[in-house]
Backbone:
């Protein structure tokens, strides 16, 4: 089989690359061993956000009296939750399949291995083998769960981010090992579903990629919701004792023992670099991922690598943007990846999002900066929603350019894009201050935070 571009892996990196390559006139073949949409659609972003919506509704129901609505009784129907999740995933995966057809991308289902610089050998899922030859190859094999190196972490019954999605019962108690985005999202979901949740975070703050000012507030808020968080702890061993799991961990104050019905291992992910013969073809990589240049090309001319497998910002939208960048470079459009302005979101209660520089980073880099914060408590729409916890924090440099935007509050994951646009377009304070924001909207909180940089915010005392 001959192709212009062979894409190895059909996740958000691979399928975007395939479509963009096809749009630009390439004959594209995509090799996928499981499901189109990869981790994101099948076992990551989408199923977790479906469950997040369940949790959101439950959190509203818990406070429903506040809205003047009284509901006597409700119960959680786990099979129905699972059915809804599966239907949404299926709808999206089927959609990708149709997009492949519409763009004339040939999809081959099987496990692909690099045979040489221009050939992928595929062990077909239906049996047999084929060689696919192509001028260019894009490696988009993604990442997998990294199991922590502590005794007992290999116990079969422990949950990973993939296994936990198919829960058939809500665990009475759940210990989450890992205070990163995936761990904290599951902690908030299962807290809302009624589990007693304990988080063990190695770093001193949860969600360490986000603005510390906000994550500290989030930790307080999660504790109020009943989630126990131990920070700065080092897991030591996991044992099964009397039908329960017990995690032993070291803290500054000594050893702690956390007992629960289920344990979720969520201490990180590692790139899928094994079993694809990178060594054989001479591609540079290490355990953090495949090495690429700004065009996302590896050291081997014509072979590109994108998404989680390069180990940088393991996010679906980054993988997708990588896909577009690699395909454009292959098709002669000069395209570079900018890793500086990447919105990052955590779907917690309240949501947290972040783009650009954090205050600590600005300090470390010796940047002269100013900050301003606007609390959602002063925003009419947030109050009407009954979700006024949190704030918008903005950072500008001495040229008045916006360099960082950090949001904790309702729809923070949607609101962050005005900040991303401001930073990527090097907008100044006045560019935003002179842009009318509709009323009553959550976006007004962003406008007010910006005005605060000039000490001209209207609803700030
Ligand atoms: P993947 O999506 O992992 O796709 C790789 C594909 O390659 C897979 O389909 C795999 O089957 C296939 N493959 C691997 N090896 C081979 C081979 N040898 N032959 C053929 N096929 C192969 N990101 C966000 O931006 N927002 C979120 O809300 C979010 N939530 C997440 C929640 C969870 C629980 C998890 C685990 C991840 C989440 N992520 C989220 C991260 C996101 O899913 C990944 O960053 C994204 O899927 C990476 O895309 P990718 O294309 O690089 O790899």
Residues:
């Amino acid at each position: 089989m001959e192709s212009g571009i062979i894409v190895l892996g059909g996740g958000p990196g691979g399928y975007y690359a395939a479509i963009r390559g096809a749009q630009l006139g390439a004959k594209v073949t995509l090799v996928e061993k499981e499901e189109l949409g990869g981790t994101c659609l099948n076992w990551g972003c989408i199923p977790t956000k479906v469950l997040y919506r369940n949790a959101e509704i439950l959190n509203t129901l818990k406070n429903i009296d506040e809205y003047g609505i009284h509901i006597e009784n409700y119960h959680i129907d786990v099979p129905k939750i699972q059915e809804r999740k599966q239907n949404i995933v299926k709808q999206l995966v089927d959609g990708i399949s149709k997009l492949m057809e519409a763009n004339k991308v040939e999809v081959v289902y099987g496990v692909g291995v690099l045979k040489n610089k221009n050939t992928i050998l595929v062990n077909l899922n239906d049996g047999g083998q084929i060689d696919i030859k192509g001028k260019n190859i894009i490696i988009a094999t993604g990442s997998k769960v990294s199991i922590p190196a502590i005794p007992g972490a290999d116990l079969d019954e422990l949950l990973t981010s993939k296994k936990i999605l198919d829960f058939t019962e809500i665990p009475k108690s759940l210990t989450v090992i890992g205070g990163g985005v995936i761990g904290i999202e599951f902690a908030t979901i299962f807290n809302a579903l009624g589990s007693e949740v304990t988080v063990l975070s190695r770093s001193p703050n949860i969600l360490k990629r986000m603005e510390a000012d906000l994550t500290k507030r989030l930790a307080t808020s999660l504790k109020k919701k009943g989630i126990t968080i131990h920070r700065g702890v080092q897991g030591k061993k996991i044992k099964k004792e009397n039908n329960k799991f017990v995690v032993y961990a070291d803290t500054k104050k000594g050893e702690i023992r956390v007992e629960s019905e289920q344990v979720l291992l969520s201490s990180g992910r590692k790139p899928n670099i094994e079993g694809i013969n990178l060594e054989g073809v001479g591609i540079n990589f290490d355990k953090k991922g495949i090495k690429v240049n700004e065009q996302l090309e590896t050291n081997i001319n014509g072979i590109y690598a994108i998404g989680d497998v390069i180990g940088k910002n393991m996010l679906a939208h980054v993988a997708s943007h990588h896909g577009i960048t690699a395909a454009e470079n292959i098709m002669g459009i000069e395209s570079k990846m900018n890793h500086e302005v990447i919105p990052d979101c955590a779907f917690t209660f309240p949501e947290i999002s972040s783009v650009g520089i954090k205050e600590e980073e600005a300090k470390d880099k010796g940047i002269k900066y100013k900050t301003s914060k606007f609390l959602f408590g002063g925003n009419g729409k947030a109050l009407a929603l009954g979700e006024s916890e949190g704030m918008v924090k903005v950072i500008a440099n001495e040229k008045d350019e916006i360099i960082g935007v950090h949001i904790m509050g309702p729809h923070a994951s949607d609101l962050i894009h005005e900040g991303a646009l401001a930073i990527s377009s090097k907008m100044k304070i006045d560019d935003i201050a002179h842009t009318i924001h509709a009323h009553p909207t959550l976006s007004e909180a962003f406008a007010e935070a910006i005005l605060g940089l000039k000490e001209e915010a209207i609803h700030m005392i």
About this structure: Residues 8-14, 31-34, 38-40, 44-45, 48, 111-112, 140-143, 161, 182, 272, 276, 307-309, 314-317, 319 surround flavin-adenine dinucleotide (CB under 6 Å). The first strand starts at residue 2 and ends at 8. The two ends are 69 Å apart (CA to CA).
